[in-house]
Amino acid sequence: MQHPTHTETGTIRVSQVDRSRRIKLTSLLDWMQDSAYTHSNLLEIFSTDRLLARNMSWVLMRKLIRIESFPCLGQTVRLTTFPSALNRYFAFRDFKLQDEKGTPLVLATTSWAVFDLEKRRIIRTPAEFIRDFSAPGPPCLEFSQARISPLEHPEYSEEIFLRENDLDLNAHVNHSLLGEWSLSCLPDELKQGRLLKELDIVYRSECTLEQGSVISLGAAFNSLGNSEDGTFYLHSLKTADHSREFSRAISCWQCSI
User: Fold this and answer.
1) Is Lipid metabolism included in the keywords of this UniProt record (predicted)?
2) Whose CA is closest to 59, among 145, 169, 147?
3) N or C: which end of the chain has fewer CB within 10 A?
4) Nearest to 247 by CA among 185, 182, 176
5) How confident is the model at residue 228 (pLDDT cuts 50, 70, 90)?
6) Which region, left, alpha or beta, applies to residue 185 given φ > 0 means left and ψ of -120 to 50 means alpha?
């Protein structure tokens, strides 16, 4: 397989950071998506453009991201991505963000599925993709939770109204926004003095403009609770009437130094 891995080097720009001068979660997720798109088109068997020509596309099903250190404004970093596994239902892609010395800053593993743009449903991976695939290396991370439990008793909530600008080329809300919205219900006082260290998010259904608005829900995750690993929260993103769930997530926060 030609181009088994893909690496991009960049300097964190002012438009990518928050008031703490650290890269925003959406900026990080967007960069990962851009690098995955670029690499997929270098790999003929994974080409996004090739799928689009057949009225299909890749959609993200799950992402586990572990943050050792948020890169800051002006810092030069290197993002490497590669496909790590492939079967009839999912393609797995991993990411590693490093500083100039090669120190890992962020690790992520993701699972993707092929999406029929006309029928608006997940379909099996084309047979020729599987036949020609070989993994260039082991995954950066493993999903530690087989599944994420449903959120039954939310403690925090926030309503978010959808805009045309939230849609991506698949005509639904992009996964980077769903990730940000999942965390938005947590009050500022809970996040004060803490940094996101891990996010495991499962995307359960597509979100379109027809929904009008979504509700971000969250609660302390008592089964994990507070530990030396951090404080955990369970998240759910649903329609306003709670009849449909778009994503489900677990986040871990640690005190910033």
Assistant:
1) yes
2) 169
3) C
4) 182
5) low
6) alpha
As a whole number of angstroms, the distance between CA 24 and CA 17 comes to 5
**% helix, strand, coil for the chain, step of 5:** 20, 40, 35
Residues 6+ apart with CB under 8 A from 85: 91, 92, 135, 139
Q: Are 114 and 126 in contact (CB under 8 A)?
A: yes
- All structural domains of the chain: 6-131 (3.10.129.10), 156-255 (3.10.129.10)
**The two three-digit tokens of residue 157, written as one number:** 């909530």
pLDDT of res. 226: 52
Residues 124 and 178 sit within 8 Å (Cβ to Cβ): no
What does the pLDDT average to over 225-250? 87
Please, what is the Cα angle at 77 between 10 and 13, to 5 degrees?
A: 50
Q: What mean pLDDT is reported for the chain?
A: 91
End-to-end alpha carbon distance in the chain: 43
Q: What is the pTM of this model?
A: 0.91
Q: What is the spatial distance between Cα 157 and Cα 5, in angstroms, rounded to a whole number?
A: 40
Report the 10 Å Cβ neighbour count for 239: 17
DSSP of 132-158: T---SS--S---S-SSPPP--S-SEEE
**How many CB atoms lie under 10 A from the CB of residue 201?**
26
Backbone angles phi, psi at 108, to 5 degrees: -150, 145
Return the beta strands (E) in the chain as ranges: 6-11, 56-67, 76-86, 91-99, 104-116, 121-123, 156-161, 194-203, 213-220, 226-227, 230-239, 245-255
